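Human: Cast an eye over this sequence-structure pair and say how the chain folds.
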Amino acid sequence: MNNLLGIQTREEIYDIQTERLKQLVKYVYKNVPFYKNKFDNIGLLPEDIRTLEDIKLLPFTTKQDLRDNYPYGMFAAPMEKIVRIHASSGTTGTQTVVGYTKDDIETWSELMANTLRRYGITNNDIVQIAYGYGMFTGGLGVHYGVEHLGAAVVPISGGATEKQVLTMKKFGTTVLACTPSYALHIYDTMVKMGISPDELNLKIGVFGAEPWSDQMRSNIEDKFRIKAYDIYGLSEVMGPGVAGECFVQNGLHINEEHFIPEIISGDTLAPVEAGQLGELVFTTLTKQGIPLIRYRTRDISALEYDECECGCAFVRMRRVGARNDDMLIIRGVNVYPIQIERILLEFNELTPHYSLTIEKDNNLDKLTITIELQRNVNNYKEEELIKLHKSIRTKIHNILQISCNIEFVNPDTLPRSEGKIKRVFDKR
């Protein structure tokens, strides 16, 4: 796998990153007033960065910094060099805006293609992209990577789910790319249409843009009878293709020739040991449009440097199951939604469709988990539901140390999403 990139060892990666980091620091100091001011305020000169370890001398960058410099204040390249602009939805505040030069687009396409190769995708595949196209980077990011690889793109975008199913069947789609929650919705629609996975040529799924557990991966793989691979990226750093799994499915290889990853403590901002969980931080090494130094992603992960069975020397990041800002505090207990998902999917009577509602009841936090059953509620005996209800509550309490209410609903009751799904409703 390394031969695709010509990189064989950790030493080679270190050398590439060191040289590119030194060039990057000079570039942003010259072209981004935000970084020049940051450096000047701490008395740091670009010449002070001599080794890769010196990255710890550099200041962090946050999403708020991008918002404060909205829309183009963080751009390093002049607008006449910018050929593409993407932006976040802005649902939680001012949009974060990112720009790409022509070289950035070519780099993005190449690293995305290399990520797809690790899944076993070749130029013989037909890739149906059901990520949204537009300001969101998902659709176009995967699209350009597939074309760079030489595979055939079916740019269907999200929505029109029955059409998605018919397209997969009639076009002979071999790879489906979308969010994992939308993949489950596509499968439910297939069942209603009376179409079996045996009627499809599908063999690989490329799923990302939202946290999903290993239990949900198994659920998707069993239903579609495919290999489901995780892909990671974020608009601020590049888009999809920052990292992706290989056939081993034991962590996502980060494309380190373009990005330096770090894991820090979200509280102290100090580095943590390899293999330990913390907040994921990225420095972009080759971006021209909007390079970022030590960007705090808020995603919780860990870095594994031991050799992977696939032979790729790039470090692996653990699959992101949570974000710092996704954490719920329920009666003083820290809980991540994906922890609840893992427990729910251990019960065969339940589907992967659920929602979490937190409210105040007499000044106390009350968590209600609404979960779809595999069959209509009326098809279960009352004692079966009582036993299931008790089993779920007991397991959640034993593992997470929280109490909850369980609400069973019929299949197809909860809303489905064509993009990132909203599962948490905090009404406190």
